[in-house]
């Protein structure tokens, strides 16, 4: 059984973000020599060249054996109503593997890691992953790193303002479009203070700093003032205000900390891939009126569009500077 990373559902990642699977090698940029893709010993990360090379993505070799397994996984998980030829499916899966590899390599360059605790927690969520081989643990670690990189890109570029919701609704009304009333969702309004940590060494200093800020916050110092003074997040000028958000928008450790709070409480320091946070929960509500449900549906729609665009931009940036060779 293989660990599934950026898994194919009704549409593949390669198709979603506009990367048609190429059938010819993409040469390295003229001014940039191709990087060595494998060790002199003839293997990379325990993968032998005898497997056959399907593609090279910067410093990683994607073998034909790995591609064949990924194609088999894709076929097993395709919805029954999706029809796709073997050649097209193989091309899209291969580009998915290339994208996955580029994202993971980018994460490792940024010192983004998957801890043993994170790997164990992810494995515990799936009974089929109870007994992981060393290779499966590496794959699961890579999937965690990739998701952290993607979440960084999404969270930095996908915040939705109330003004954006207003404009969307106004435009729909002008065009005579009736917006569907969404389901009521639990929503949270919170503030946070972020001290960034790009690596393990930086995380130690960031933790020390955030704990000193936390001591001030729990002793009654104005949270908004602390955020404006110390937070390294883009919303620091607004007192760290995150506006209203629903479950599934924030990264998992942040969301778990919010769930543990009551309005008015400040969380203990929380670590995410962005650094160290403290969070103040201000209000909780169920968006229950027709207007609130519509606004929430619009907000979620805009967020999803921004998230997809952020992921696409991430992939475009990685592709623009990468050496990719499709065999």
From TrEMBL:
Residues 185-283 form the PpiC domain. Its EC number is 5.2.1.8. Pfam families: Rotamase, SurA_N_3. Keywords: Isomerase, Rotamase, Signal. It comes from the Bacteria. PROSITE patterns: PPIC_PPIASE_2. Coiled coil: none annotated. Residues 24-43 are annotated as: Disordered. It is an enzyme of class 5 (isomerase). Residues 27-41 have a biased composition (Low complexity). Residues 1-20 form the signal peptide. One of its GO terms (molecular function) is peptidyl-prolyl cis-trans isomerase activity. PANTHER family: CHAPERONE SURA. This is Peptidyl-prolyl cis-trans isomerase. The gene is prsA3.
């Amino acid at each position: 059984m293989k660990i599934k990373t950026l898994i194919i559902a009704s549409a593949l990642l390669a198709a979603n973000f506009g990367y048609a699977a190429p059938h010819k090698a993409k040469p390295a940029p003229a001014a940039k020599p191709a990087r060595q893709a494998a060790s002199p010993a003839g293997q990379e990360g325990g993968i032998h060249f005898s497997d056959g090379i399907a593609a090279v993505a910067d410093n990683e070799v994607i073998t034909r054996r790995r591609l064949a397994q990924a194609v088999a996984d894709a076929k097993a998980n395709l919805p029954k109503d999706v029809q796709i030829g073997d050649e097209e499916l193989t091309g899209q899966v291969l580009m998915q593997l290339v994208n996955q590899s580029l994202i993971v390599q980018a994460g490792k360059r940024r010192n983004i890691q998957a801890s043993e605790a994170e790997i164990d927690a992810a494995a515990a969520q799936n009974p089929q992953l109870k007994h992981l081989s060393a290779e499966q643990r590496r794959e699961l670690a890579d999937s965690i790193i990739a998701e952290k990189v993607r979440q960084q890109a999404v969270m930095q570029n996908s915040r939705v303002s109330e003004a954006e919701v207003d404009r969307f609704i106004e435009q729909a009304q002008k065009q005579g479009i009736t917006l569907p009333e969404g389901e009521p969702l639990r929503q949270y309004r919170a503030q946070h203070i972020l001290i960034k940590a790009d690596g393990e060494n930086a995380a130690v200093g960031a933790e020390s700093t955030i704990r000193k800020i936390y001591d001030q916050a729990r002793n009654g110092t104005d949270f908004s003032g602390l955020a404006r003074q110390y937070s390294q997040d883009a919303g620091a000028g607004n007192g760290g205000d995150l506006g209203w958000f629903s479950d599934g928008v924030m990264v998992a450790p942040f969301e778990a900390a919010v769930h543990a709070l009551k309005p008015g409480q400040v969380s203990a320091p929380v670590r995410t891939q962005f650094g160290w946070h403290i969070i103040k929960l201000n209000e909780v509500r169920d968006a229950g009126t027709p207007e609130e449900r519509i606004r929430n549906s619009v907000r979620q729609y805009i967020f999803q569009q921004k998230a997809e665009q952020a992921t696409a931009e991430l992939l475009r940036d990685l592709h623009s500077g990468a050496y990719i060779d499709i065999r």
